[in-house]
Amino acid sequence: MSKNARTSPSRRPARGRIELIPVTGLPEIREGDDLARTISAAVRRARLRFQNRDILVVAQKIISKAEGRIARLSTFEPSAQALQLAARGSRDPRLVEVILRESRRIIREHPVLIVETHHGFVCANAGVDHSNVPGEDVVTLLPTDPDLSARRLGKALRRRSKKQIAVVISDTFGRPWRLGLTNVAVGAAGVPVMLDLRGTRDRNAKRLQATILAIADDLAAAAGLAMGKQEGVPVVIVRGYKYRPAQVPATKIIRPAHEDLFR
Amino acid sequence: MSKNARTSPSRRPARGRIELIPVTGLPEIREGDDLARTISAAVRRARLRFQNRDILVVAQKIISKAEGRIARLSTFEPSAQALQLAARGSRDPRLVEVILRESRRIIREHPVLIVETHHGFVCANAGVDHSNVPGEDVVTLLPTDPDLSARRLGKALRRRSKKQIAVVISDTFGRPWRLGLTNVAVGAAGVPVMLDLRGTRDRNAKRLQATILAIADDLAAAAGLAMGKQEGVPVVIVRGYKYRPAQVPATKIIRPAHEDLFR
Question: Which pLDDT belongs to residue B6?
């Protein structure tokens, strides 16, 4: 326990500790909202203060809302392909139409539509999602360029706070082989998305082989614990994680198709 | 910031915060070691104290070492199948032999051997691993029953500490579609491995569909941030995460083969 822990209200975590700090009290986000401003205000109200090397993990949902990446199902005319896919899976053809427009390729149909998005992400329903959106007719889409969204938000937050803040944009994805959803990174700025330990040595001085850690995904998963799906806390500060600032897009995490027998 | 944060050295995290606390100073673990005792001693030396609802995430590696789940490659005679697989992939035939004995089925050969282990986990090399083991000839195997290992360790820790402590045993696995390794749960005791939110409502009172969070994996991933592969901190306390104690094996996370088109 560092002395600091007892003396400063916006202390750094004790040596080696990492804190996951939910930023509560955000209002419902609407198209055109200045997220850096809204988040900074919530951070202030919660009597938090940004610190250098804080990593802000932001749920994709509020990025999409601020960027107007929402769709009204009633405004979509389903194509023949959408109608077919919908019929085969008892799905809303308008929803399928939206999913198809967000997709480069369909990977499987059952039990859910697994697609490759235009970004290259492989996920259910192209990330098109009903939850935490007002209105039965409204869905959110993934940001067009989540890495760009992360860079912009990071820049605006750094300008406001004068602190070096990294941003990870997270979403919950399923995966083959294991059940359940975990939070993964769909956008990143200021933090390395992967940590390549190849060639470094372990505590027995053996070279580590094939060890590349997907730390942006670990950061997203960790923040997910503090988000809580129901309570709707879409922003979490990860504090105390040591990293070298880097500009690497989260799309670098996507496994190239030619290395991936599963597509 | 709670007042507590400034008055008590073994405070609970401020409301809603989660802390990832590395337990440093563990000695090299050997077969037969009493892990509960060794970990409790390290926790004391680090001037930490267990609290109710702490979740101890423990790297598979030290569980395997304590349980004697290690193998000396020189003592294995490769079978014909091991020799063939080794020749096709420029691998050590003795290592391939060990991997085959730990496997129920081979899923793919290139670029690494992806297998289904006897537990049902799908991972590279059946979890057989060279790193952080003394000796060039020695590898660790996954625990025979990691859920049982977690239950035993949890029980012993609760007896010593008089605190309700849950245990997650973690390992780093790769995955299709995304590069890099993340920490996942291979064993669990005292904490739910999945959080089923189906039927609950989001902040707009819409029912959440198909939302089951793999929280044991999120816990493992979060702890992974505080472990650091090189530094070899194989034990992390996750503190402040709210859960209902449950006895669910981590093998419940395995997607049943008949639901999984990727096998």
Answer: 37
Q: Which of A95, A181, A233, A253 to mutate to test the interface with B (most CBs of B within 10 A)?
A: A181
User: Residue type for B227, please?
Assistant: M
Handedness of CA B164, B17, B200, B217 (dihedral sign): negative
Contact status, residue B191 vs residue B170, Cβ threshold 8 Å: no
CB contact (8 A) between residue A222 and residue B217: no
Predicted-complex ipTM score: 0.90
- Structure confidence by residue, pLDDT tens digits, B124-154: 999 999 877 777 789 999 999 999 999 999 9
Report which of B7, B60, B2 is spatially closest to residue B35, judged by C-alpha positions. B60
Helices marked H in chain B: 4-7, 35-45, 60-66, 80-89, 93-101, 146-161, 215-227
Pairwise CB contact (< 8 Å): B225 & A219: yes
Q: Do A254 and B177 touch (CB under 8 A)?
A: yes
Range from A224-238, B195-209, B229-243 carrying the lowest mean pLDDT = B195-209
Q: Which pLDDT tens digit goes with each residue over B61-97? A: 999 999 999 999 999 999 999 999 999 988 999 999 9
d(CA B203, CA B225): 30
**Predicted confidence (pLDDT) at residue A251 exceeds the cutoff of 80:** yes
Least Cα separation, residue B167 to chain A (angstroms): 16
What would the mean pLDDT of A183-192 be, rounded to a whole number? 96
CA distance B233 to A210: 19
Q: Are A229 and B213 in contact (CB under 8 A)?
A: yes
pLDDT score of B224: 95
Whether the predicted pLDDT of A20 surpasses 70: yes
Q: How far is A71 from chain B (nearest CA, A)?
A: 17
Nearest to B222 among A209, A221, A261 (CB): A221
CB hemisphere CA count around A62 (13 angstroms): 24
In three-state secondary structure terms, B55 is: strand
